[in-house]
Specification:
The complex is a heterodimer of chains A (about 250) and B (about 290). Chain A has about 250 residues and is an alpha/beta fold. Chain A is about 40% helix and about 25% strand. Chain A contains nine helices and ten strands. Chain A has a six-stranded mixed sheet, sandwiched between helices. In chain A, strands 2-1-4-5 form a four-stranded antiparallel sheet, covered by helices on one side. In chain B, strands 1-2 form a two-stranded antiparallel ribbon. Chains A and B meet through helix 2 and helix 3 of A and helix 6 and helix 7 of B.
Chain lengths: ~250, ~290
């Protein structure tokens, strides 16, 4: 569905992402992990069109999308969430989501259909759908859900979820992970999930890619990646391996 | 103290003046709030609109209302072009560049108007009646201007609240990067916002031409005060600009009543300077 080939992004002389290649199959949940500054969010920004790519190609459903502006990438069916929630505080909760429904993938949508779609997206992430609900009432978990709802309202085929767990407690993390799984199951949406919290992600994803200093150092099933010596060395540490192995063991097969 | 009917007259006249100032501030604030660029030459768009109405009405005999509608459309196109030709190429560059570019546009428009129309003061030659009410006198032109400005502002409010484009404009004003990832073409939003800002200037032009002579430097009579009102209310804050317009107009009107008109402006500007020390972010400002 998405094929990234030799993606490179330079900021001046600094190479943030260096010749990274990977592919995502339809219906898959792909984990993209790595320490801070490893280039995960940069990959997202380039795929979503927020940043122009320096070299390489990004193909979505067989068509080149590398270098397209973000609104056109969205119209092709790719939506993203942001690591730090960026809600429109002076818009109502429903307006926040409705505006992405109206301008999202389906541009022939009617006004009333856009409102319905916004309500559906809010219901999917279990947020209030009343017109009077405000953004101010949301806590950290609620804001993360709003990020997801805004992305879903654009009717995407692929969602780029950026650190959906940051700032959440244990129970909220489990809920968020379940929610991503539900979205894949109910809507058939493909997900690329960036995270640096390991345990919960390893339980949910089908495959993992590990970045370090802008380069791909490992790719494979969660368990195999967690045991890869290079991954352990640069990133996980012994505790992380244990957590990942435990999570993997708990995973329904 | 005895109830002073002339003071009441001054207060009501201040209110009427405030309506037009609020309209001007709304246009400038909308553009700044959404695009983050201050159009220093905003009042020169009003000047262009005033010339438009003047020529259409006084020279070609087009009915006044139609002339005003054509001016609204024409200045909206001008606003669109200002963004397309001047702002768009330097968007994302340091603010000083944008300030200089729109400042340059100010002189360009002034000089161009001088070239085309000369420096004469021109009046559309329409004398609207003065309304007398319990010994108080109100110019009909001012009442008309106030009412039309109010209608313009309410229409904009409804547009921003009730349409998806309006919602997108409000959203882009808060975070320009996010809306693009949700499929909104921000370039288009900027152009539409600029056209609306221009349209508001065109409406103001149609109203001001009833009260003032047109000349190439007429923008300087409204530009600085409009900019000050926006800053006083909190640059980019539509409600703040609305409130500040009525505060400033009362200073001008009441100050002018007790002393004389020029003193009214002096007091208003002193108030502005003092407020900049006390509340530099503006009365309702959110930005630092």
């Amino acid at each position: 569905m998405l094929a990234v080939q030799d993606l490179t992004k330079q900021f001046g002389g600094f190479v943030a992402v260096n010749r990274v290649s990977f592919a995502v199959e339809e219906g898959e949940i792909l984990g993209l992990i790595g320490p801070n500054g490893s280039g995960k969010s940069t990959v997202f920004n380039v795929v979503a069109g927020t940043l122009p790519l320096t070299a390489g190609s990004v193909r979505f459903e067989g068509k080149e999308i590398g270098g397209l502006p973000p609104d056109q990438v969205c119209h092709r069916g790719i939506a993203r969430t942001f690591q730090i929630p960026r809600p429109f505080k002076r818009l109502s909760l429903l307006e926040n989501v409705a505006v992405s429904a109206f301008y999202g993938q389906n541009r022939d949508i009617s006004r009333s259909r856009a409102w319905e779609q916004a309500e559906e997206a809010l219901a999917l992430v279990k947020l209030p759908t009343e017109a009077t609900a405000t953004v101010d009432a949301l806590g950290a978990a609620g804001l993360k859900k709003l990020e997801l709802a805004r992305a879903l309202a654009t009717q995407p085929k692929l969602v780029l979820a950026d650190e959906s767990l940051g700032g959440l407690d244990e129970a909220e993390m489990e809920q968020a992970a379940d929610m991503l799984q539900d979205i894949r199951r109910q809507k058939g949406i493909t997900i690329i999930w960036v995270e640096h919290i390991m345990g919960v992600l390893m339980r949910v994803v089908d495959r993992v890619i590990v970045l370090d200093h802008g380069e791909k150092i490992a790719e494979g099933l969660p368990r195999a990646v967690a045991e890869d010596p290079r991954v352990i060395e640069v990133y996980l540490g012994r505790q992380g391996t244990a957590a990942a192995a435990a999570a993997d063991a708990a995973r329904p097969s | 103290m005895v109830f002073d009917i002339y003071l009441l007259e001054a207060i009501i006249n201040g209110l009427l003046l405030g309506g037009v100032l609020a309209l001007l501030a709304l246009g400038l604030n909308l553009i700044f709030g959404v695009i983050d660029v201050v159009w220093i030459s905003y009042a020169e768009l009003v000047m262009a609109g005033m010339y438009g109405v003047y020529w259409l009405y006084a020279f070609f005999g087009v009915p006044l209302v139609l002339a005003a509608l054509i001016a609204i459309f024409g200045v909206a196109v001008l606003g669109f072009l200002v963004h397309y030709l001047v702002i768009s190429p330097i968007l994302g560059k340091p603010p000083i560049n944008q300030l200089l570019a729109t400042g340059g546009l100010l002189f360009f428009l002034q000089s161009f108007a001088t070239l085309l129309f000369g420096v004469e003061f021109r009046n559309i030659g329409l004398r609207l009646p003065v309304i007398e009410l319990w010994d108080m006198y109100f110019s009909f032109a001012r009442i008309l201007a106030f009412a039309a400005a109010l209608i313009g502002m309410v229409s904009l409010y409804v547009f921003l609240k009730r349409t998806f484009m309006g919602t997108a404009i409000r959203a882009v004003a808060q975070d320009r990067e996010i809306m693009a990832t949700m499929g909104v073409n921000t370039r288009q939003v900027y152009l539409i916002t600029s056209a609306i800002g221009g349209g508001l200037a065109g409406l103001a032009a149609g109203l001001l031409v009833l009260q003032y002579d047109v000349h190439p430097a007429v923008g300087l009579s409204f530009g600085p005060i409009t900019f000050m009102i926006c800053v006083l209310g909190g640059l980019g804050n539509l409600l703040g600009g609305f409130v500040a317009a009525f505060i400033m107009s009362q200073f001008i009107s009441i100050g002018g009543f007790y002393l004389d008109l020029e003193w009214g402006y002096v007091i208003a500007f002193v108030f502005f300077i003092v407020m900049m020390f006390l509340r530099p972010q503006g009365i309702l400002g959110r930005r630092g």
